[in-house]
């Protein structure tokens, strides 16, 4: 027999796994898969799992295995063996010396298994009690899959109690939980359960899409046991839609799979479904054959309530071998059904009880039994009526609106009030739209005006800065050149002194040229790559250090793009850089300088250190113009400035300046760099 993918994978893991504990839990998972595919293999595997669990003294694995074995037994109709396993689970659940997590697992296995065990016996009240305990435990442990499964089982049990509103509520909760964890098997169970809710309410057309979804998922998962219930569900729906041949096809297909799997628990209900379908098709002889087959199966299971139900059917058909139902039998059945909470069976028994009382000519009791039957039947129907009414009301309201619109279009008669409302609404919409457009235009105009004002202010600042630089820097240098030129022309000193003056004049001219070059650079709004800040920094360092015979190391990143760093900020960084390098050449008496300029996500970092003579920081006047200028420029950009020095140990200056955070500009810059590298 071909296996599905999960089963094959688990078998490979078990065959190759060396860790005994990992192998054990793989065997537990394999049983879960085999239960729905091949019960015989599942039973053989769970026995091996029990042996390994005992050998490893793993109580939690023992509990899980007994839960699986109990399920196999009651699905196979071996109720006594199932009860033995359930007692084992109860013993594990009552252990108090276990860690809390294991204790929850042991109790969870017991509650879940007990709920399904009692449900299979038809004792729905007891089943519901255990399932609710399991659900509460699942909420405490936050075990999503376990909790979703308990919600599903509770909903299925409420169907048996004829509480369809509660059933639908729990099924929808379970579906939501399974969808959140994407558990396809659980989702298929929920679809089928919702289909059953609608089926019990005789809303077969609403049930059909859910049943088909369930069948599709179970087929894709190769869930053979799940396909049995899906085929049964479709058979019931098609029978309700009076497509009896289609219904019979699905019921017989389901019974065939039951016989292949040897699932005794599903055989009796499957035979009953076929018998009921033949009865609807007015074929009593065929119905009688399947009723008798079902009776034999239920007799083997000691399911007396089902045997009595079939006897009642056979009695009405007058075919087959059956036991005459007595008044005492029916009263005992009613007592059992009440105790178990099987409301539908209880109601149907009252119908038969009324018939027996009538035969005995006890008309008062017959009338009382008949009244109880119809009263309780109405209660059940009314319990489902709220769901029906909600759907019917929604459909009715939708159709009513469609008819009203069609009628208005056909007759072209719209009342004056509606016309006035429509006109008012149009005026309101148009007015609101115009006002919105006006506000947008005003906002755009204001923004443009503010931007222009900012540009003018910025231009004024640049003009003032240029004027100051021209006056302070170029002006002073030209004055010095003029003064030294006069000294050379009028001096009667020696030739060597005149040469010194000429050399100084040359240096002043070069410095003036450099200052003018800087002013021109500052005036540019979009410097090209040759004039970028990193290039200027390297060039300036080379010019100043090479003439002084000072060794230097430059680590300057190339990403000082105008788009990322504003031009004004680049200007201040360069001026600080020049100030520091000039001070090193003039005062440090150094032989080596290290320059480190880089950018990170949030800041610009500049560090410059030399191995010169250094100085005593305690004797430095912080108000000195050079140091004061550096700090003021750093403070202007809300950065940090750190100066360390000691006599004989050189000087180190570190500063950080925050970068602008403009995501659009950064994306543009990254795009340019990517394009350039490509």
The CATH class name of one domain reads Alpha Beta
Helix and strand sequence: HHHHHHHHHHHHHHHHHHHHHHEHEEHEEH
Characterize the main sheet: 5 strands, mixed
Count of runs of 4 or more consecutive helical residues: 25
Termini separation comes to 58 Å
Unreliable stretches: 319-323, 392-397
Basic shape? elongated
Tell me the β content.
Answer: 5-15%
Assigned CATH architecture of one domain: 2-Layer Sandwich
Q: What structural class results from the helix and strand content?
A: mainly alpha
Average pLDDT over all residues: 79
CATH topology of one domain: Heat Shock Protein 90
- Strand order of the main beta sheet, please? 1-2-3-5-4
Estimated radius of gyration: 46 Å
User: How many DSSP-defined strands?
Assistant: 5
CATH homologous superfamily label of one domain: Histidine kinase-like ATPase, C-terminal domain
How helix-rich are the residues, as a percent range? over 70%
């Amino acid at each position: 027999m071909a296996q599905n993918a999960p089963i094959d994978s688990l078998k490979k893991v078990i065959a190759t796994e060396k860790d005994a504990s990992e192998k054990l839990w793989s065997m537990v998972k394999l049983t879960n898969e085999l239960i729905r595919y091949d019960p015989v293999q599942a039973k053989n595997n769970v026995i091996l799992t029990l042996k390994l669990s005992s050998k490893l003294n793993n109580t939690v694995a023992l509990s899980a295995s007994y839960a699986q074995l109990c399920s196999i037994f009651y699905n196979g109709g071996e109720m006594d063996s199932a009860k033995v396993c359930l007692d084992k689970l109860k013993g594990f659940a009552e252990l108090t010396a276990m860690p809390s997590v294991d204790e929850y697992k042991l109790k969870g296995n017991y509650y879940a298994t007990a709920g399904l065990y009692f449900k299979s016996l038809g004792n729905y009240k007891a089943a519901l009690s255990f399932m609710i305990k399991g659900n509460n435990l699942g909420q405490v442990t936050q075990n999503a899959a376990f909790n979703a499964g308990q919600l599903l089982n509770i909903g299925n049990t409420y169907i048996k109690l004829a509480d369809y509103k509660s059933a639908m509520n729990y099924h929808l909760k379970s579906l939501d939980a399974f969808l959140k964890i994407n558990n396809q098997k659980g989702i298929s169970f929920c679809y089928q359960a919702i289909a059953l809710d609608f089926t019990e309410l005789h809303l077969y057309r609403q049930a059909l899409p859910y049943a088909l979804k369930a069948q599709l998922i179970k087929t894709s998962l190769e869930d053979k046991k799940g396909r049995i219930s899906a085929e049964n569900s479709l058979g019931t729906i098609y029978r309700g839609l009076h497509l009896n041949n289609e219904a019979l096809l699905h019921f017989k297909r389901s019974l065939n799979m039951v016989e292949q799997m040897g699932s005794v628990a599903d055989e009796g209900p499957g035979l009953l479904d076929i018998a009921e379908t033949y009865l609807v098709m007015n074929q009593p002889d065929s119905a009688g054959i399947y009723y008798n087959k079902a009776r034999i199966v239920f007799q083997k299971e000691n399911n007396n309530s089902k045997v009595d139900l079939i006897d009642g059917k056979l009695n009405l058909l007058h075919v087959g071998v059956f036991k005459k139902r007595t008044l005492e039998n029916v009263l005992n059945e009613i007592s059992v059904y009440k105790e178990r909470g099987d409301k539908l069976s209880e109601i149907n028994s009252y119908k038969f009880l009324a018939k027996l009382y009538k035969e005995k000519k006890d008309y008062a009791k017959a009338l009382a039994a008949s009244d109880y039957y119809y009263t309780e039947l109405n209660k059940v129907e009314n319990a489902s009526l709220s769901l029906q009414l909600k759907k019917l009301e929604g459909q009715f309201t939708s159709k009513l609106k469609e008819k009203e619109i069609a009628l208005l279009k056909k007759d072209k008669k719209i009342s004056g009030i509606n016309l006035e409302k429509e006109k008012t609404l149009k005026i309101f919409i148009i007015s609101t739209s115009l006002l919105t457009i006006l506000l947008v235009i005003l906002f755009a105009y204001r923004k443009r005006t503010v931007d222009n004002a900012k540009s003018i202010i910025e231009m004024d600042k640049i003009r003032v800065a240029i004027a100051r630089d021209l006056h302070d820097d170029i002006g002073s240098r030209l004055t010095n050149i003029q003064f030294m030129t006069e000294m050379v022309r009028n001096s009667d000193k020696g030739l060597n002194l005149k040469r010194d003056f000429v050399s100084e004049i040359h240096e002043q001219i070069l410095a003036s040229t450099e200052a003018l070059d800087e002013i021109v650079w500052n005036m540019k709004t979009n410097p090209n790559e040759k004039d970028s800040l990193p290039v200027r920094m390297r060039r300036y360092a080379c010019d100043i250090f090479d003439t002084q015979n000072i060794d230097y190391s430059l680590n300057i990143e190339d990403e000082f793009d105008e788009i990322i760093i504003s031009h004004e900020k680049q200007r201040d960084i360069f001026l600080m850089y020049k100030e520091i390098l000039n001070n090193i050449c003039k005062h440090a008496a150094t032989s080596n300088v290290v320059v480190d300029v880089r950018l990170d996500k949030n800041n610009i970092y500049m560090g410059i250190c030399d191995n010169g003579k250094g100085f005593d920081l305690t004797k430095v006047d912080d108000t000195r113009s050079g140091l004061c200028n550096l700090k003021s420029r750093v403070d202007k950009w809300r950065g940090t400035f750190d100066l360390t020095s000691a006599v004989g140990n050189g000087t180190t200056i570190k500063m950080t300046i925050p970068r602008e955070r403009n995501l659009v500009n950064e994306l543009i810059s990254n795009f340019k760099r990517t394009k350039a590298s490509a």
